[in-house]
């Protein structure tokens, strides 16, 4: 029986590239590296215009704990350090490297003496490799693997519930040995006895592959999850696999669990065993506007336009290009955006919804409430957000919203609740912290 959580919805998954093996792409002429690609402290460039860099060389870092360095994916000369648009449409400090095509590699230092390393040393290796939540969250992994209290369950997230994206699916099919090794490294690091890999039922080949790989001596359970969005959300995954609810204002560690994306686990294996930092990733290029949908292994820093070109270009001018999935991704106004660590997909659509928020009246159908995976009342939150009513928004737990977009997706009145709520949420959080600090 497939495990699941209350709420959510099965939406057309459109996994056009699920059966397509990953293709290796060479780098482009210019590579763009935003100096900060994670959630946490901003980084500072370690190089300047005219410097020569090598593959795997650290080019940006910070002294703060909640940070993850950026490494070059190519060798060549730093052309400039300048503002350039990133995947969320904001211009940010970016290191531009002119690829010389030689791919000279910086010295790599695998942990040959891994078994003798302390927990702190292993965490430092993970941090130094620039590993973050590669499923899209972007939180530094060494911080997540330093929970404030003991945990008893490690959950590897292989759900990949967003439509179109098949990057994690292909990773499980093509690198199961490395994933198991990475999972064992993290399980040992956390001191947990239970380790589970959660995979949606629509990826039967991945379930079978991982079960074969974990059959003997690994103590890793492969759990079949119901195909339902957002099954891969952290709190929903914990509920489905362990039955535990993460309370409002708490983190997974508070209920004894840590969740790590399957591609993040692969990169932990690669960093520890081979000394290779995060310099590439699998990116799905898909959608009905793409001539040749594909899965590519991409050196970080190439542009979306380069990926589209490798996928045969557009059939016709797309109405929308999204980095990430169509539910939680970011629509782009330019294809000059570079691939960063959290770029799991590029989806181009010939047609996209354009009728949101036409002020059609809410018919009180309750669909947004019954399908909300967090058990919230999106209609109330949407109304509060529109009039900037912080008190009401906090009353209805706006801080619990995971911004999955289901409320907008199923609303018959075509209200863009997600945009309104997500735009207002930071203001509500700030107000709540201010009230807490003042003792209100």
From TrEMBL:
It is an enzyme of class 7 (translocase). InterPro entries: 4Fe4S_Fe-S-bd, 4Fe4S_Fe_S_CS, Ion_transpt_RnfC/RsxC, Nuo51_FMN-bd, Nuo51_FMN-bd_sf, RnfC_N, Soluble_ligand-bd. Binds 2 [4Fe-4S] clusters per subunit. Signal peptide: none annotated. Residues 352-382, 392-421 form the 4Fe-4S ferredoxin-type domain. Its cofactor is [4Fe-4S] cluster. [4Fe-4S] cluster 2 binds at residues 372, 401, 404, 407. The keyword Membrane applies. It is found in: Cell membrane. Belongs to the 4Fe4S bacterial-type ferredoxin family. RnfC subfamily. The complex is composed of six subunits: RnfA, RnfB, RnfC, RnfD, RnfE and RnfG. This is Ion-translocating oxidoreductase complex subunit C.
């Amino acid at each position: 029986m497939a495990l699941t959580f209350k709420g959510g919805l099965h939406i057309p998954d459109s996994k056009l590239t699920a059966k397509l093996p990953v293709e290796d792409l060479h780098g482009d002429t210019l590579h763009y590296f935003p100096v900060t690609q994670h959630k946490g402290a901003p980084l500072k460039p370690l190089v300047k215009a005219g410097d020569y860099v090598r593959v795997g060389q650290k080019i940006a870092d910070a002294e703060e704990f909640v940070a993850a360095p950026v490494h070059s994916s190519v060798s060549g000369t730093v052309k400039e350090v300048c503002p350039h648009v990133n995947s969320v449409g904001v211009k940010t400090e970016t290191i531009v490297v002119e690829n010389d095509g030689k791919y000279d590699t910086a010295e790599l230092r695998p942990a040959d003496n891994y078994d003798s390393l302390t927990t702190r040393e292993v965490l430092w290796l993970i941090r130094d490799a620039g590993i973050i939540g590669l499923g899209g969250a972007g939180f530094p992994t060494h911080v997540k693997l330093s929970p404030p209290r003991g945990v008893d369950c490690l959950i590897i997230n292989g759900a990949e519930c967003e439509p179109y994206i098949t990057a994690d699916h292909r990773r499980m099919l093509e690198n199961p040995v490395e994933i198991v090794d990475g999972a064992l490294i993290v399980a040992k690091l956390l001191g947990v006895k239970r380790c589970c890999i959660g995979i949606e039922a629509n990826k039967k080949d991945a379930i079978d592959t991982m079960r074969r790989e974990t059959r003997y001596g690994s103590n890793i359970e492969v759990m079949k999850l119901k195909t339902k969005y957002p099954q891969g959300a952290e709190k929903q995954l914990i509920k489905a696999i362990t039955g535990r609810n993460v309370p409002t204002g708490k983190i997974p560690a508070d209920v004894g669990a840590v969740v790590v994306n399957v591609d993040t686990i692969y990169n932990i294996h690669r960093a520890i065993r081979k000394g290779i930092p995060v310099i590439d990733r699998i990116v799905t290029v898909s959608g009905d506007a793409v001539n040749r949908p594909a899965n590519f292994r991409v050196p970080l820093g190439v542009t979306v336009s380069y990926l589209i070109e490798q996928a045969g270009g557009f059939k016709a001018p797309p109405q929308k290009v999204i980095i990430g999935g169509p539910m939680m991704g970011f629509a782009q106004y330019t294809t000059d955006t570079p691939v960063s660590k959290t770029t799991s997909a590029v989806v181009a659509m010939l047609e996209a919804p354009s009728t949101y928020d036409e002020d059609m009246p809410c018919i009180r159908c309750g669909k947004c409430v019954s399908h909300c995976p967090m058990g919230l009342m999106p209609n109330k939150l949407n109304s509060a957000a529109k009039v900037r009513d912080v008190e009401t928004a906090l009353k209805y737990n706006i801080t619990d919203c995971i911004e999955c977009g289901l409320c907008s997706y199923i609303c018959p009145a075509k209200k863009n609740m997600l945009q309104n709520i997500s735009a207002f949420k930071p203001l509500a959080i700030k107000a709540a912290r201010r009230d807490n600090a003042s003792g209100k």
